[in-house]
């Protein structure tokens, strides 16, 4: 039989439910906003970012790294062994390397010096050998080698290559003298780059230059005319360099005088290699035999000049036929550039022609002749000048001057 409920218990439950109903029926506007719930002085953006880590927190995290490393070492035996091996082996290897670099096992005992010539060759070789014997093949001091040859102005660069276990190859790059400078009553040798080498390197085969002021050994020339002269001499082929008597500045510009009296008009120091090749091409042609001067101021259009009253010889039939076929300039350039041809020309230029050529070259009315081997449009006519020569002398209406020094 169902138990009946007392009326008092039902009334009590209703009274307890009234506060809950009151809270549900409370208006929504009474709920405070997020900004109202924040403490005074803090912005919502800063509040969302959360608390920042201070310096003490960072120091605590940084300080945990060594602690973590020590814990890892205490837990892993292999890691401890590897770290201990590194700490012991690194100093031993470094010390062993330093000992080996200066030990007798790799000491320099055989020195080979190359690239030295002239009267100071033995002294340069002795200085380099003495400096190298205090080195090892694992510790080559190029600065010490350069300091050993610093008193020799002829040495420009020094390169060293070690050959284990006891060999050292030293290559010297020299700046050989190309001219003898006469200034203020003194004679001194000069290199192609304008460095004064001193009187110890003078020789009878060096061409002469005339200057106004003497320069100290090791200094550089400052006169533009002298610098241009040594630049041209430095570009000369070796056979030609031995037959040049002097270089001077004349009415036709920079002029090179050969030992047999032949004059070569360079004009200036631009394109010196092309101008020397043009000189060789002109003199290798049979039609330039007996010429008193060669004008190579425009290397593409060289010209050979003859004394007054002298007719140039006719060009060879081979040159004429090759020129007509369009291959003469290429063949002439190849032949003139060969060492044998240049050496043969140099032998002729070194012949004792005396002063006849100089006097003939300075005579008025000399003709200009363009040999058959001239580059690009050279003419074999004995009475006309080349097209480039006529352009240069159109203002004066005369052939290139042939006055000697």
Structure, described:
By secondary structure, the chain is α+β, with helices and mostly antiparallel strands. Among the domains are: 106-174, membrane protein fhac (Ubiquitin-like (UB roll)), CATH 3.10.20.310; 235-392, no CATH class. 40% of the residues lie in helices and 17% in strands. The longest helix has 25 residues, at 77-101. 31% of the residues are buried. Mean pLDDT is 74; it is low at 316-335 and 353-405.
Quick rundown:
With 405 residues, the chain is α+β, with helices and mostly antiparallel strands.
Structural class: alpha+beta
**With helices defined by DSSP (H or I, 4 residues minimum), what is the helix count?**
15
The parts where pLDDT drops under 50 for at least 5 residues are 316-335, 353-405
Q: What is the CA-atom radius of gyration, in angstroms?
A: 47 Å
| Percentage of β-strand residues | 15-25%
- Give the number of DSSP strands: 13
Order of helices and strands: HHHHHEHHEEEEEEHHEEEHEEHHHHEH
Give the helix level as a range of percent: 40-55%
Mean pLDDT: 74
Q: Based on CA inertia axes, which overall geometry fits?
A: elongated
Spatial strand sequence of the major β-sheet: 8-9-10-11-12-13
Biggest beta sheet summary: 6 strands, mixed
- End-to-end Cα distance, whole Å, is 157 Å
Secondary structure elements and pairings:
Layout: H1 7-24, H2 34-37, H3 44-49, H4 55-75, H5 77-101, E1 110-114, H6 121-132, H7 142-148, E2 155-163, E3 167-174, E4 177-183, E5 186-191, E6 196-198, E7 208-210, H8 224-234, H9 238-241, E8 244-250, E9 253-258, E10 263-267, H10 272-284, E11 293-295, E12 303-306, H11 317-324, H12 328-337, H13 339-349, H14 356-362, E13 367-369, H15 387-392
Parallel strand pairs: 1-3, 4-7, 10-11
Antiparallel strand pairs: 2-3, 4-5, 5-6, 8-9, 9-10, 11-12, 12-13
Helix pairs in contact: 6-7, 10-12
């Amino acid at each position: 039989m169902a138990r009946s409920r007392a009326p008092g218990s039902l009334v009590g439950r209703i009274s307890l439910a009234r506060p809950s109903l009151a809270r549900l029926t409370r208006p929504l506007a009474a709920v405070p906003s997020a900004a109202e719930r924040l403490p005074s002085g803090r912005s919502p953006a800063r509040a969302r970012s959360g608390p920042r880590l201070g310096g003490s927190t960072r120091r605590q995290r940084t300080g945990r790294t060594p602690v973590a490393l020590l814990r890892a070492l205490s837990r892993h035996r292999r890691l401890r062994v590897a770290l201990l091996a590194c700490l012991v082996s690194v100093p031993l290897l470094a010390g062993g390397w330093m000992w080996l670099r200066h030990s007798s096992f790799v000491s320099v005992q055989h020195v080979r010096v190359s690239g030295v010539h002239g009267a100071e060759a033995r002294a340069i070789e002795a200085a380099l050998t003495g400096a190298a014997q205090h080195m090892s093949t694992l510790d080559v001091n190029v600065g010490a080698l350069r300091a050993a040859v610093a008193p020799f102005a002829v040495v420009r660069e020094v390169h060293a290559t070690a050959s284990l276990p006891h060999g050292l190859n030293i290559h010297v790059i020299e700046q050989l003298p190309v001219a003898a400078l006469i200034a203020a009553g003194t004679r001194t040798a000069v290199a192609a780059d304008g460095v004064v080498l001193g009187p110890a390197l003078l020789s009878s085969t060096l061409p002469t230059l005339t200057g106004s002021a003497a320069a100290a050994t090791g200094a550089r020339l400052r006169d533009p005319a002298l610098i241009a002269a040594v630049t041209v001499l430095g570009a000369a082929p070796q056979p030609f360099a031995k037959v040049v008597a002097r270089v001077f500045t004349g009415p036709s510009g920079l002029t090179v005088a050969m030992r047999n009296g032949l004059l070569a008009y360079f004009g200036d120091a631009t394109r010196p290699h092309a101008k020397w090749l043009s000189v060789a091409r002109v003199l290798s042609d049979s039609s330039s035999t007996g010429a008193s001067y060669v004008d190579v101021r425009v290397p593409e259009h060289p010209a050979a000049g003859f004394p007054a009253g002298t007719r140039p010889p006719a060009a060879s039939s081979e040159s004429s036929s090759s020129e007509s076929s369009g291959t003469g300039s290429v063949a002439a350039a190849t032949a003139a550039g060969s060492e044998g041809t240049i050496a043969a020309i140099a032998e002729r230029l070194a012949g004792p022609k005396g002063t006849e050529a100089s006097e003939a070259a300075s005579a008025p009315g000399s003709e200009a002749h363009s040999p058959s081997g001239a580059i690009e449009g050279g003419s074999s006519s004995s009475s006309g000048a080349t097209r480039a020569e006529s352009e240069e002398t159109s203002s004066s209406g005369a052939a290139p001057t042939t006055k000697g020094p």
